[in-house]
Each structure stands twice: as C-alpha cells, then as structure tokens.
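Box 3.1 A note on notation
Throughout this textbook, protein chains are presented in two layers. The first layer is the amino acid sequence; the second is a token string describing backbone geometry. Keep the layers aligned when reading.
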Amino acid sequence: MPRTAAWIEPRREGIYLPAADAWIDPAEPKPRALVTHGHADHARGGHGAVLATPETLAIMGVRYGDQNGQPIAYGESIRLGDVDVSFVPAGHVLGSAQIVLEHKGERVVVSGDYKRRPDPTCEPFQPVPCDVFVTEATFGLPVFRHPDTGGEMDRLLAALHANPDRCVLVGAYALGKAQRVITELRRRGHHDSIHIHGALQRLCDLYVEHGVELGELAGVTGLKAADLKGRIVMCPPSALNDRWSRRLPDPITAMASGWMRVRQRARQRMVELPLILSDHADWDELTTTLREVAPSEVWVTHGREEALVHWCMTHQIKARALDLVGYEDEDD
C-alpha cells in the first residue's frame, strides 16, 4: 500500500517538496524556502527565494535585510511545479501561517507554530481539514494547560498597583509576545506609557506599521529610577537580570511564557512574578485541533513528540515523529 503523502520528504534540515523543488522552514539556506512565520528557528536568512506572508517578509527584512521574497496573502493559492500551495492563518504571531499543500489528490497542512487563544495582534488560527497534519508539540504533555490570558494580565496589574514604589519588569520575547502583552494590557485599561528596552523597538514599530495599536511606548535611556516607579517596563528575557535592569527602581521581575508553568524554570530565571502566557497551543488545544482537522495521519515535530504520537495512536490516528533540527522554544 503506498505511503500517505509520499511526495513529501521530511529531512533533518526541513521538509522538502521534490515536486515543487522547495523547502518549508529549512534550517539552512536553500534555493527556495516557504516560511511559516518570522521566529528565527523557522525563518533564516540567506535563501535564494522566500515565499511567505507580507508580514513575515517584513519581519525577515528587519532581522536579515531585504529578502528575495514573494508575498503570499492569506487565502491566495499559487502553483509551484505540480503542487498547489496556499497560506492560512496560524494564530501564532503577526503574519504566521499554516502552509497548505495539495498534490496527487492529497492535502497536507504544515502548521508551523500555532495557538488557539484569541490574540489581538494576529489573525486567528483557521482549521483546515486534511489528509496529513504536521503539528508542533511544544507543550505536548497533559500537564501543560494554559490559564486564562486575562487572569494573568490581572495578576500583573495587581502587582503594579500594590507596589507604587517599584516597577514591574516583564521579560517577553521580542517578536509576538511583547506586542501581545502590551495590547492585552491596553484592553484592560492600562493606558499609561509602557517603557521598552531598545531591542523591542524595531519590531514594535513594525507591528504598528501593520495596524496593531500599541499605545504610547517610551524608552528607558536618560530616565532616573524615580521616573519609573509605578511603571511597566518590558525587555527581552535575556535582559531581566543583566546590567541594564539594575538602573530600575527595585523591579518586580516578571516573565511572560508558557514555560512559567514549570516552577524550576521560574526559579532559574529568578522570576518573582511568573506569567503563564504562551503563543503555542497547550495540550487540550493540540488534541482539539487534531479532532477538528481530522487527518488520517499526523506528523509531530519540535516538542514533546512521544506523548502526542501516543494520543494519536489511542484515537486510531496514524502518527509519526519527525526528527527535524534547529527548533527552539523561543523563551515562549
């Protein structure tokens, strides 16, 4: 019996499509790359040509310089060789997409990274029924069930209001997480200026250029510690405990990440206020998604692959783990 989607070749450095002579999220430069989103473990520079959403190409431009890019809008379909290709929203970050491949009567969806929670900074995930669904498993264990987003933001604001002589320093990944935290705070009525580390500025500007309202943002340079009392300050996770943060007024150190569910990670980061906020699907959302798209086969990658493969097998869904390299948890 022929193998499902035999026209797709998962390789160590990415997923190769011989019939289209193209790669999906390759870990090294290739002549033609289809890119799901702008995080560095999926979008790398140096490709001969890049096909991605306009927003992802803009993000890659900020990070790597101008790309030889072909923008593909959500819902647009193109033909590469003998493969029909389209991009649909993944709900992960601005411009993130699932790549839908159709060839020889089969449909394969490569989801990239995705989440199912509402996010005011990006288009919501769109389930696409398919024969093969390639899913991430970053939080692919039953212990990972993310709490309500609003509740986590309320905890942040409560800490801020209870400590007027301190600031709250929030570590958040520069692409996606930082902008999501800012917009969620705005939705809860926090309209004061939010201070940001310089490393967040370019991507915040890009989000604003693409219609995401972030409100008033300000830097930290030149300010005295007293100027930052009662303020929210945001930085990359790497800056939480470095020399830059020492100028702040007795900061309450927070970090917005799905990994804050793991207490040991919070302790290792010396995080006083762990905020469980993820841009990836949790266990229930992963399994719900598989039920919705109803594939005959699931390919699992970059994460806790074994548990999700086992879940598929117990639900009469054929499954396999892909051994791809180069994927990281992005301080999610």
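The chain has two domains: 9-143+280-321, 149-275. The longest strand covers residues 83-89.
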